[in-house]
Amino acid sequence: MKIYQESILKNNLSVITIEDKNSETVAATMWISAGSRYENPNEYGLAHVLEHVLLKETRKHSLDQIGTLVDRKGAYLNAYTSVESISVRVQSSKNHSEEMLNILAEIITQPLFNTQTIEKEKNIILEELASFKDSKNKRIGSELMRLVFDKHPLSQTPIGTETCIKNITATQLQKYYNAYITPNRSVFIVSGNITHEEVVRFAQKNFTEDWNNAADGVKNDFETPPPQKRSEKIFIEETGNQTRLFFNFLCPNVGLEELVILELIANSIGYGKVPILKEELRHKEGLIYTIGVAISKFRDASLLHISTATTKPKEVLEGIGNVLSKIGTLYEDEQKLIDFKEQFKEVLLRKFTNQSQEMELLWILKKLTGKMIQPQEIMEIIDSVKNDDIQKTIEKFLSSENLLIIAFGEKNPFE
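RESULT FIELD:
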């Protein structure tokens, strides 16, 4: 049985543990509220460059020393930058967990901003950017976020721009680090065969009160108003055999119960072999190969989006529109609603058995609610959902007045 606990240290670092005595591994991630939404126009890519530099070297160890230590223990070390976070993660067998936790703490609290190293890493990131531009899926994904969130900070792509990346300096990185890589903006989540008390003692020792505790000049997370709902159809010309279609519902200031209901809806119309969208568009009409429904979750908004690609975009637009127009009727039958809720719970249970997915889910819930939410609490919310709750959520967030449709292809399907 797993034990979930949270402690807040004196320096405001949140420490969350998932103790699992049956696990042979220990995984730890430091999630930090940084990322591209906190960048100014002249510094796009700054958080991404910082993430790369954090993994290069510390004041104590070179890249070779860190890499050799991690590799010889058969461990895993990586970092990632998103719109709203920088995360650094380690995982190892329980036999080497102390060494890996020490490495993570050192990376976070003792980075080295060596100008020569930074210039080399910028060149690597420029190669990554070139690969990004060559990838049609990544380019369209980035453009999609820009169009959905318009001029809001959430529209900014984490990878950055070529001009900004080239101009980033060690001074800028140090300043960004001082402002954002702070305990009050961080959540330390550890999962595996380790107790909460052991993790707290480790955090108190290694993430001390003098670690970047003053965050002068940081933008308030909610300084910018949340993105606004809107209804529009946008066509972007893009070469290819298929037209890519995205149905987007922007949901600002979503509460936890509302988010669970939106996830329940997304699961019931898009998950598995025979959800209604796939049933109507693939199995009955043969118009698509695949279709996806997902929810992107940010601090001040969530985005429910349906995505597919087809050579018959007008027919698919009509088909998805028909499904959405009758979505509320799916939950009127009491037994059907029970079945959908059980299906959603089973999907979540699989996620909770995956160490990485469970940790990320706890981080997202902490980010959105400000507290640790245990899996059982989510299950109880799902059990409590009634048809009336779903109808209210559909009316609030999934109406035609809040539908932004974006098409990428050679011909405009809206004409």
